[in-house]
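Lecture notes, unit on protein representations.

Consider one protein chain, 125 amino acids long.
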Amino acid sequence: MKNLKIKAAFIGLLWAVPLLASPDLDNHYALRSFVGVVINGEADPVFSEHIENQIIKFFRTRTRFEVPHQAYIGFKNDLASMYLNDPSTPIDQKLLWMRPQILKLKSQGVDAVIVAELGRTASSY
């Protein structure tokens, strides 16, 4: 039942976000260029790859946004050399480790980075 409530809330959020978003807000807050990655892919590599592809697809299919391919690939390669798959390491620590790579993306013109971490429990994510 708890998972159903979370899914319903997430679907509601996805429905509401387009009502709040606009090109004017994007320009005002300079949110045009995005890079999105999923860390802790060892929890379920196929599922994490699917989620990451959906994040990228979401932004690429909207003309207001762009996903700079070279910056995305470079970020993925930089993160591959870091050990981010330990579930016992807090996400804030992992973000601190990623800070130099995120600043590098900023210097390449990327406005925002979306980092999703998979967490697996006995029966769900």
